[in-house]
Amino acid sequence: MKKPRKPSQELAQAQVQRQDLRLFAVLASSEEDFLRQSAELEADPLFARLCAPGPDGSAPVLRRRLPGASYAFSLACGDDALAAAAGPGGTAGEWLAARPEMLALARRVGLENFEKFFLSDSAFSPAAAARACGCTPAEAAALKTFAAAFLLAHEHIAPAALPRLYLRCAASVGAEGGKLSIAYTHPSYLRGACTVDHRALASLVKSGGLTPADAARAAGLAARAQRLAWRRAGFHRVILALVEAQSGFLLRRSGLAPLTQRELAARSGLDPATVSRLIASRTLLAPWGDEIKLKDLFLAKNAFIIDKIKAILGAADQRLTDTELTAVLRTKHGIRVSRRSVNLYRSKL
């Protein structure tokens, strides 16, 4: 006979189930809806309060950049449609008038320096940036101010007003010196990590610094921030693993490597169903400028082997037997497959 559960246990289980359902809803939402939820959270004055140091000197909600995350500043800043969406109202038109000059300056200082000095949250020294970037301190200060304003303006554009590219295209992949880099097309992914300091949150509530209504909402906002951050962090892990797995293709050194969503899930430490939801309808910009669906970067092993067989047979001077073809696959391409499988794949050519 089963022991009856205590009411406290049932309540805790119900809370976990509700949290799981809310996380599932965030993962399953479209990018437009996800960005809308993020914008609503950022616009909430109470959330801004939670991100600021409390009475004990600690912020209840800690935000930081995802490791290796960057922002596709040149792409976004050079997009007239995006600038038009960011420009209406207020004094935005005044500082956006400097966009061509600032874009040229950002390109002149180089991607690495721009990332280090102008996207970083660390202390900024115009003199140090100028020495490293080959510009004047005044130019460095102007670029820092402009970059911060542009990121903020981009992040505050209503998702429905964004050019469609920025809803479907997750990131731009660059290739320099034989290395790949990933820059997100939306700034919300730049500071995507989020943790909740529950002790600092409790301290803020106990201090009386919040109204009773805000105190009741604070924990919910913190949990919501974590769910949104989990989606960003999960997607970041997926795209890092995907770009690494297909680095040969993206560097134009080889074709696609055999890769399934299940294998990518194992690489990124996520559930295959989660990976499927995160990459649905998303694309990236390849180093050569083409927009590629993330799902097109997967290649089943049998399709990979068939492509290799086709290439081997096309380059062969004479007809190869299945046994000979099996040996070539093993010795030249490291593919171990039975002669019977080779015969089956060959019949599909």
Q: Strands across the major sheet, in which order?
A: 3-2-5-6
Helix tally equals 19
Mean pLDDT across every amino acid position = 86
Rg result:
25 Å
Order of helices and strands: HHHEHHHHHHHHEEEHHHHHEEHHH
What would you call the structural class? Answer: alpha+beta
* Total tally of structural domains: 3
Shape: globular
What distance separates the N and C termini? Answer: 62 Å
- According to DSSP, the number of beta strands is 6
Main beta sheet, described? 4 strands, mixed
- Helical residue percent band: 55-70%
Residue fraction in strands: 5-15%
Low-confidence stretches: 8-17
Keywords:
single chain; 349 residues; alpha+beta; 3 domains; two-stranded antiparallel sheet; 19 helices; 8% strand; globular
Describe this structure in words.
This protein folds into 3 domains: 12-66 and 186-297, no CATH class; 80-162, no CATH class; 301-347. The protein is α+β, with helices and mostly antiparallel strands and 349 residues long. It has helices at residues 7-28, 31-43, 45-50, 73-77, 80-86, 92-96, 99-109, 111-118, 126-133, 137-155, 165-168, 198-206, 212-245, 247-250, 261-268, 272-279, 301-315, 322-333, 339-347; strands at residues 61-64, 169-176, 179-184, 193-196, 283-285, 291-293. Strands 3-2-5-6 form a 4-stranded mixed sheet. The protein has a two-stranded antiparallel sheet with strand order 1-4. It contains 19 helices and 6 strands. Helix content is 59%, strand content 8%.
